[in-house]
Amino acid sequence: MGKRKSFLVFCAAISILLFSFPGKALSENWYLINEYDITTDNSKTFRMRVVARVKNKDFCYELAGMRKGKLAGGILISTDCVSGEEYDKALEGVFRSVPTKEPYITLIDKYENETIIDFLSVPKETIVSLVKKIAERFRKEGFLGVRIISHKEKEQKEEKQKEKQQKEKPAIDILVIGSTEEDVKDVKGAPDETIGRVWFYGKDMVIFGPNGKIIDYSDFSETLGIKK
To answer: Containing domain of residue 57, as a range?
Structure first.
């Protein structure tokens, strides 16, 4: 009986270990994940996911028990505490405020935890306005460091930089053999018609080579202004 009892205790201990460490070993980081249903002005409902990085397991479950049923106009539908290397890897980019395909919100919650908010299954034409609206709600509710992270901001900066470079680019008013397509647009504007590498301005033609530079032209109206 003594051997049987020892064997059962051993099996129980192994079972506890297996259930305590599923798959990969736990990391030092714990994440509190709350999901809320958000109803928009046009009565459509979307899922808002709030992920806070917390200091340890006990604090995570303590916060989970303190979460209110409503946040930024959303109604709480689920709460979970998770840890593991796979979560660290998945969330590393967003916690470093790296733009993703769709915009998301970063902030510091009322317990001083770094927090991200993203949205699930939101159409592209809706996501930007929804994120702006929810970010404003978080600001009004007293959260700190509320920021919207998106590729759109990056694209807008690049567009402004491009416009600045265009303004700084010296004005061109004379075209010659070897002028580029961009030069022709700057002087003559967009062509009336294009066929392959031939641009038409009325009856006049500008012919470009494979490198996008003028190799020939026909100036019937004598208004192209191309100098030989």
So the answer is: 25-153
Tell me, yes or no, whether 73 and 138 share the same domain.
yes
What residues does 31 pair with on adjacent strands? 53, 82
In a domain, 147, yes or no: yes
Give pLDDT tens digits for 98-128.
556 778 888 988 888 889 898 887 887 788 8
Please indicate, yes or no, whether residues 37 and 147 belong to a single structural domain of this protein.
yes
The string of pLDDT tens digits covering residues 125-153 is 788 888 899 999 999 988 899 988 876 65
Output the pLDDT for position 18.
Answer: 31
Give the chain's domain count: 2
Q: How far apart are CA 154 and CA 9, in angstroms?
A: 59
- Whether residues 118 and 70 fall in one domain: yes
Q: Which amino acid is at 24?
A: K
Query: Is the same domain home to 184 and 131?
Result: no
Look up tokens 């018609």; give the residue. Answer: 193
